[in-house]
Amino acid sequence: MMTGEVFNVLLTPTGTNRNGEQYGGDHQVQIMGETILTNGEKRKELVTLRTDHPEAFKKLLGKTIAVAIGAFVRNGSIVYYMQKGALPATVNQTASTTA
Known about the structure:
With about 100 residues, this protein is mainly beta. It has a single domain (about 1-90), classed as CATH 2.40.50. It is about 5% helix and about 50% strand. The protein contains 1 helix and 9 strands, in the order βββββαββββ. It has a 5-stranded antiparallel β-sheet with strand order 5-4-1-6-9. Strands 2-3 form a two-stranded antiparallel sheet. A two-stranded antiparallel sheet has the order 7-8. A hairpin with a 5-residue loop joins β4 and β5 (about 40-50). The termini are close together. About 15% of the residues are buried.
């Protein structure tokens, strides 16, 4: 579960790659979260996730939400993804945390 502020909702541009395949056209939501480091300091992180429900997130721009996510490691970096069908739930708190 990730909590954070809905910062932006966007549609990625479309195009065609060298092989003639279409790409882009994905709806994405950007969530500003906060990670607490081992020394107690807080680091802000902007996480961009693909979504099938952009309107649900647009209604909550600037609000703190929670949404079900998953994560995996690719090339030594953590990659977050929104679980299929996940919808945001409003959260009544000032602090936010990344999973």
